[in-house]
Amino acid sequence: MLLAMQEERQDRTTAEVWGRIAGAWAVAFAMLHFYWALGGSWGLSVSAGPLAEERPAWFVAVGLWGVGVLCLVGGGLGWLLAARPQPRGLAGRVVKALGWCVCAVLLVRGIAVEMLLLTGAAGQEVDVSPAQRLWTLVLWNPWFLVGGLLFGLAAREFGRAEGPSSGTA
Question: Which pLDDT tens digit goes with each residue over 5-47?
């Protein structure tokens, strides 16, 4: 009994840690986009190329403010994955499913762009400078991959911390 309680506490603590780290990752990503939306330029030119210089309204609204807000929602999801007590029932299943969805989207995005840049499969019509390629391969895509792994670990540990079903004796 005591061992089972210690294991459950360990599972909850692990779930809280991964959920908090995933949430912090999302909030840090949001802050970077808000910095860019407010006129900051560090890193944006090698990430977004000509869009960074032109800053069309759609890019600022959707690509910077929109992504920033979406990342804040991800921060909220990280908080829910770390919540104590954890949401149960349908709410718990939705939180866990959203955690896995965010994991999948971030990993697929990171891997797909990495493969496009490494293989040149995007074609000649995509104008990517050597600085943009380096920035994307070394910093930007690994950032997406780390975020995907963090949300995956948080979702996995969230499920483990739910404990046995109510029908088990």
Answer: 555 555 567 889 999 999 999 999 999 999 999 999 888 877 7
DSSP assignment string, the chain: -HHHHHHHHHHHHHHHHHHHHHHHHHHHHHHHHHHHHTT--TTHHHHHTHHHHH--HHIIIIIIIIHHHHHHHHHHHHHHHH-SSPP-HHHHHHHHHHHHHHHHHHHHHHHHHHHHHHHTTT-TTS---HHHHHHIIIIIHHHHHHHHHHHHHHHHHHHHHT-S-TT--
C-beta of residue 46 within 8 angstroms of C-beta of residue 132: yes
Reported pTM: 0.80
Q: How far apart are the C-alpha atoms of 88 and 90, rounded to whole Å?
A: 6
The token duo for 9 is 């506490």
**Closest C-alpha among 37, 81, 28, 83 to residue 56:** 37
